[in-house]
Design goal:
single chain; 287 residues; alpha/beta; eight-stranded mixed β-sheet; five-stranded antiparallel β-sheet; 28% helix
Length: 287
């Protein structure tokens, strides 16, 4: 797991461990007895409440949670692939809200996986398999048409690797998805949003239906932030996504159809040859 050092804090004890992706820190929540935040090199990655896996603290995780809630009838088990593990927040959420679901988590940082498994263990009954592999390599091992849901939330050094941003990557996603399955991704960008627009154009080249959920200030190019992209070949539950996102503690806006096409502007799909990592967040992003 790497060499760890502990530091006492007034409300508990945090754990700092060197992992492949940087310095991982598990910080206890002063307000929730078994709540923990995972940071990598100071950047918040995940929040988990071991007593309440349905609690989603981060804005973008709540938006991904809305997609999970609406990807199938309430409570119905699904087959889900999570690209990027973090503290397995969304996998825990799927297991809690859709019992008997079968899930695969692909996370390349083996020391991080060991840290999370040891300090924030997954209940054995939750049927979550964790595969230590690169996200694209792990996705290639998913059987054709197996997944009802593919969730991409992959960051290395606070940036999404370039090889997870291309049409060729989305071809692998489509291969793994069952007919009518949903792909959703956490995308981070800042003004003037060229990376986000390129990711929308790339998804539009491979999926018939798209929606985007984000803070209105992010969509207006006022600040750096996260956007959740939702894609499928089947109609998306746009009206309910809109209602749920608008009622969040930090309301999000949903763009769809012509509005989303206009937002994309003249962006072109990204290929492996032209792909670049997502932009690094500014220092002010985590203050």
């Amino acid at each position: 797991m790497g060499k760890a050092r502990r530091r006492r804090q007034s409300e508990g004890e945090d754990l700092v461990v060197q992992v492949d992706g940087g310095l991982a820190q598990l910080v206890p929540d002063r307000d929730r007895a078994r709540g923990w935040t995972l940071l990598i090199d100071g950047a918040p990655q995940s929040y988990v409440d071991l007593d309440d896996p349905e609690y989603l603290s981060f804005e973008y995780q709540r938006r991904l949670g809305h997609v999970v809630d609406l990807c199938a009838p309430a409570g119905k088990p699904v087959r889900a692939v999570h690209l990027g593990g973090g503290a397995f927040t969304l996998a825990r959420y799927v297991a809690a809200t859709r019992p008997r679901s079968t899930q695969q988590v692909v996370e390349r940082d083996a020391p991080l996986v060991e840290l999370v498994r040891s300090k924030l263990p997954l209940p054995p009954r939750d049927r979550i398999r964790v595969r230590p592999a690169d996200a694209r390599d792990g996705l290639a091992k998913v059987p054709d048409g197996w997944a009802d849901l593919v969730i991409a939330d992959v960051f290395s050094g606070a940036r999404t690797p370039a090889h997870l941003t291309s049409i060729e990557f989305l071809d692998e996603v489509r291969r793994a998805l069952a007919p009518g399955g949903i792909y959703t991704a956490n995308i981070a960008d800042g003004p003037p949003l060229p990376y986000l627009r390129g990711q929308i154009a790339t998804a539009a080249a491979r999926f018939a239906e798209l929606a985007l959920i984000a803070d209105p200030a992010v969509l207006r190019g006022k600040r750096f932030g996260n956007a959740v992209l939702v894609a499928s070949d089947a109609p998306l539950p746009v009206a309910e996504l809109t209602r749920r996102s608008a009622s969040d503690p930090h309301p999000g806006r949903v763009q769809h159809g012509r509005e989303l096409r206009d937002f994309t502007g003249g962006a072109v799909p990204v290929t492996d040859h032209a792909a670049v990592a997502s932009p690094a967040p500014p220092p002010s992003a985590f203050r």
